[in-house]
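Need residues for this backbone.
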């Protein structure tokens, strides 16, 4: 199964190609892009061991001059020091303004490579080859790039669109189960905020906590529907001046939990899962959606094997304090994405500290 999704933007539109085995043809696809001959592949050691040579061989067979740069795996390395090291390699390889940085990896690699591409020589070409489910359905699409600051996640960044996103579902076979489940958090997110049919398909599936439980048709469906949902939203609001903020559902509290646990306790999708549970409970308290719908969401998250509670050692007060450093704060008010129904959410900045405190207190394990 293969599908192509267009991300239609006023400028810099591009396509998402979903194709099992497509990594073998990245050279041919790159040859049809208006890019120069020099490509620097950025990856981490583990992913590069699996897929680096396949990527390089395919590119070289099309006449590209290819080098690579490896970043240690992990959110701890998503910082400006790692960006400086990419710059050093770019300089050593004499990348030019028509050269390309190609991200081969998960969301961390994609975010950093995109930010480096946005800022090196004031912007060079960028191609995404996501290798984790989370990166395939979320991080690789939409042009958000960046790195973390010690005080918060993704506080340093830029909007910078890729020339191409190539998704090869067959690479998921080497993805650890925990990372697969983390990616499913973002899939559930799309079901809640945009695509009721996707949500119901996940509910109907017998098991969704492991790649082994997905047949090819269901996997292709969640990849296509998730990418289409994000393309639809980004196409309406490229730089998050309005509706694009709904893509942050679950992320406000999720980012706070990630940061307060030093990115060592939870992977991103796990923290987002907890954030979605919290946002759902807030929505119920505010009368925006029903207990039944919140229960359906929480059941789906639990069915995926994702966490639904906050660690006991985190304090409600420190979580609330940390929310003030979120990128989505506007005029001193924290903006939350709250569901109204399965498939529909709203942006809200009128949540009282009492409701927030009560919700977080109940969720602490």
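Answer:
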């Amino acid at each position: 199964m293969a599908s192509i999704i267009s991300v239609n933007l006023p400028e810099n539109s591009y396509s998402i190609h979903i194709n099992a085995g497509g990594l073998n043809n990245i050279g041919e696809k790159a040859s049809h892009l208006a890019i120069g001959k020099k490509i620097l592949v950025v990856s981490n050691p583990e992913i590069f061991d699996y897929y680096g040579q396949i990527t390089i061989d395919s590119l070289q067979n099309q006449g590209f001059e290819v080098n690579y740069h490896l970043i240690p795996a992990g959110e701890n390395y998503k910082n400006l020091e790692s960006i400086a090291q990419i710059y050093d390699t770019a300089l050593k390889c004499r990348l030019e303004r028509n050269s390309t940085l190609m991200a081969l990896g998960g969301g961390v690699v994609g975010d950093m490579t995109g930010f480096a591409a946005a800022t090196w020589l004031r912007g060079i070409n960028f191609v995404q080859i996501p290798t984790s489910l989370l990166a395939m359905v979320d991080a690789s699409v939409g042009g958000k790039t960046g790195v973390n600051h010690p005080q918060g996640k993704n506080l340093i960044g830029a909007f910078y669109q890729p020339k191409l996103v190539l998704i090869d579902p067959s690479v998921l076979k080497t993805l650890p189960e925990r990372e697969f489940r983390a990616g499913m958090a973002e899939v559930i997110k799309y079901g809640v905020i945009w695509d009721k049919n996707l949500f119901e398909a996940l509910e109907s599936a017998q098991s969704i906590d492991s790649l082994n439980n997905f047949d090819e048709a269901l996997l292709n469906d969640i990849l296509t529907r998730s990418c289409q949902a994000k393309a639809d939203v980004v196409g309406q609001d490229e730089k998050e001046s309005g509706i694009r903020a709904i893509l942050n559902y679950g992320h406000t509290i999720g980012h706070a939990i990630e940061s307060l646990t030093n990115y060592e306790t939870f992977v991103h999708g796990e923290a987002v899962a907890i954030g979605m549970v919290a946002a759902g409970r807030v929505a119920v308290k505010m009368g925006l959606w029903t207990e039944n719908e919140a229960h359906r969401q929480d059941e789906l998250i639990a069915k995926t094997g994702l966490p639904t509670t906050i660690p006991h050692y985190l304090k409600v007060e420190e979580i609330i304090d940390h929310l003030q450093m979120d990128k989505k704060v506007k005029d001193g008010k924290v903006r939350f994405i709250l569901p109204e129904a399965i498939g529909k959410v709203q942006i809200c900045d009128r949540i009282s500290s009492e409701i927030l405190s009560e919700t977080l207190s109940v969720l602490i394990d």
